[in-house]
Amino acid sequence: MSRGLVGRAVRRREDERILRGRTRYLDDIDVAGAAHVAFLRSPFAHARVGGIDVPEGLEGVVAVISAADLDGRARDLPVQGIEGGRVSEEGHPVLARDEVRYAGQAVAAVLAESRALAEDAAELIEVDYEPLEPVLHARGSDLTLSHWHRVAGDVPGAFGSAAQVVTASHALPRLAPVPMEPRGAIASYDVANDLLTVWVSAQDSHRQLAGLAAVLDRPEDSIHVIVPDVGGAFGSKGAPAPETMLVAAAAILTGRPVKWTEDREENFVASYQGRGMEADVELAFDSDATLLAVRARIWADLGGYLMPTTAIPTHTTAMLMCGVYDVQAADVEVVGRRTNKVPTGPYRGAGRPEAAYFVECTMDVAARELGVDPLELRRRNLIRELPYRTALGWTYDSGDYARCLDRVEELVRPERRDEGDRRVGTGFGMYVERAGGLFETAEAELMPTGRLLVRSGSSPHGQGHDTTFAQVAAERFGVGLEDVELRFGDSREVPRGVGTFASRSVAMGGSAVAQAVDALKEKCDAVAERLGGSATLRDVAEAEPGLTASARFESDLVFSSGAYGAVVEIERSTGRLSVLRMAAVDDAGTIVNPLLAEGQVIGGTAQGLGECLVEEAAYDDEGNPTFASFVGYSLLTAAEMPELVTEFVETPSPLNPLGAKGIGEAGAIGTPAAVSNAVTDALGGARVDPPFSEDKLWHALREAGS
User: Fold this and answer.
1) What are residue 561's DSSP bridge partners?
2) What does the alpha-carbon distance between residue 674 and residue 257 come to, in Å, rounded to a whole number?
């Protein structure tokens, strides 16, 4: 039976289907008569666009679509604002009009009978470009796309009375999300019923539905969105993409089904990226090393246009600049600037890793300047009583930051032992992150067989919803896991939801499942009582067919937290960095499935290590990406993963029935600060920003006199 399922390390139910090749990804879907799309993309980072010359008689070509063909048929992508800030309404166009703002921006779309024919034809089309000077650095741009500034408490007084003011500057590079499955979309238009059906590799169906309705100016009930199996996203498939809009518009224009599957080069140059922020941070301390105030100026490289959610990570970073510390005076400003690069957007962590990195690395600088042990400095300033309202306005719901720090110190086994050609350093980083919020939905139905069917507004792309949600449903309904079926991704079948991102699935989607199942169980119990009290679920289904219940769960934000530790080694003669071991202690509230939660931590840590060691979406002086393949953009392999010890601290959230918070982004948040502080320790206090290349560290060692 089902008791004790929540909290049990159950293996993922979906894995057998995945491993046996029974999944159905976007490219596995074949629609009869589909034309295939290849995009003609700009080779320039910034240029005026003149005429587009399409040769006649291109083999197999159905249509060539430019921005002029979309006039009156497709609007720019809508832009989401940020609370308390200003955001430009200049959304990303479906196709470039008279200007391109990044290398890789789509200028035209070629529809042909095959992808190969479409690509061949695209190479023969000539575009009249007038190259312009690109802007490549946020601090060097005077084109502001977003701005947020908040002051709380007596910041001037705190800095004026401070015994010590610590200042540090930090930078995090842009990163490419690199999901295993690149993006893609298929669209088919039923003229007779005025129904547009879109299959899309995405993180949910209803955000895609809303985006299509807004861009194409169509009522939502005339659009059907289906999200099939998705091979990863890491945030990059959340916001509707201009290519998806083009595919949908092309299906309406031509009257034929249209298919686009992104190749890896396109994914590198055209899918939005993450991070790309710089910060100047000041911390004011009294004579007892008590933190009095925080002051920060943050610059975000947003790229050539705003995608729907481009500004969201900047706001998240700014709001988390007090970290886990009890400080009631803060002055934080974040400016998002336009550059001639592909836009940025939410990527695993989405503003949280940036805040943790800026705050925690500055705390280590402070410890060194104040002559206080880094862990002791943190302990003196930790928030001890929760709920806690920060100076910047968010309320942390639950947590035990001191316990997380104590445990990670025990687990990481701090080390400082320099021998011969090796320098060893130990570093720590803490974090707090927002999760959940808004709403999520679920429907529960008793099937004629007595099994339970649950439809969720959340949508999986690797997280394990089919297992964790089934654990919640089975325990509350009193059945076995094998008697629970989950359905996701079809906008015509599942209830309208917000989707899967921001570590919100269990806290929000799982809570909606819990409430829907609880409501259905009440109905079933009532029917069973009428039948004599010993009726089975099959009896109930036969007596009252079609029993259903639905739930819309709403909640304020919940806040996960944790502490990470790293031990690193730098080879003096080469600058080569090795991460010897790591420890991760995370508080995600109630853990529904420890096995899957640990998997999320391991995966997030791997991505955080990649950011530290090898990953950077770099551009040359003309704005051309230097990473259009895995030759120029490296990912960690299992061979580079260090020893990693994980542990959970559970302080349940009071804001949802499961007590859950979020775990999906934890590793990506806590890792960069911990590794960076360990590198600084190994360098004897010298600071460099990631990625920690051999050349960068070799020069740092020489400058430090090693």
Assistant:
1) 432, 587
2) 50
- Mean pLDDT (whole number) for 483-495: 96
Hey, what are 164's tokens? Answer: 């010590």
User: One-letter amino acid identity for 255?
Assistant: G
- Between 418 and 555, the more confident residue is 555
Beta bridge partners, 297, equal: 280, 333
CB atoms within 10 A of CB 169: 15
d(CA 430, CA 644): 17
Q: Which residues contact 268 (CB under 8 A, 6 or more apart)?
A: 176, 178, 617, 625, 627, 628, 629, 633
Tokens (6 digits) for 665:
């982004």
Do strands 258-261 and 184-190 pair parallel, antiparallel, or not at all (unpaired)?
Answer: antiparallel
d(Cα 273, Cα 302) in Å, to the nearest integer? Answer: 9
Angle at 508 between CA 502 and CA 512, to 5 degrees: 155
Identify the pLDDT of residue 1.
42
Instruction: State the SS3 of 374-418.
Output: HHHHHHHHECCCCCEECCCCCEECCCCHHHHHHHHHHHHCCCCCC
User: b vs e for 582-615, b when ≥16 Cβ sit within 10 Å of the residue's Cβ?
Assistant: bbbbbbbbbbbbeebbbbbbebbbbbbbbbbbbb
Q: What is the mean pLDDT of residues 459-486?
A: 95
Where is 487: in which H helix or E strand?
strand 484-487
pLDDT in tens, 494-553: 999 998 888 899 999 999 999 999 999 999 999 999 998 789 999 999 999 999 999 999
**Beta bridge mates, 452:** 446, 484
Look up residue 26 and give its DSSP letter.
Answer: G
Contact partners, residue 150, CB within 8 Å, separation at least 6: 84, 318, 330, 331, 332, 333, 392, 393
Q: Which two tokens stand for residue 260?
A: 């686009």
Measure the CA–CA gap between 317 and 330, rounded to whole angstroms.
14
For residues 357 and 323, give the distance between their C-alpha atoms in angstroms, rounded to a whole number: 10
Q: What tokens were used for 108?
A: 């035209």
The identity of residue 504, as a single letter, is R
Contacts of residue 99, defined as CB under 8 A and 6 or more positions apart, other chains included, come to: 46, 47, 48, 49
Cis bond leading into 55, ω under 30°?
A: no
DSSP lists the bridge partners of residue 521 as none
Phi, psi dihedral angles at 484 (to 5 degrees): -120, 130
Contact 35, 112 (CB under 8 A): yes
Q: Which has the closest alpha carbon to 198: 229, 225, 221, 237?
A: 225
Beta-bridge partner residues of 110: 38, 64
Please name which of 101, 93, 104, 106 lies closest in space to residue 135, comparing C-alpha atoms.
Answer: 101
Contacts of 515 (CB under 8 A, 6+ apart): 442, 551, 553, 657
Tell me how long the chain is: 706
For the stretch 397-429, pLDDT in tens is 999 999 999 999 999 987 767 778 899 999 999
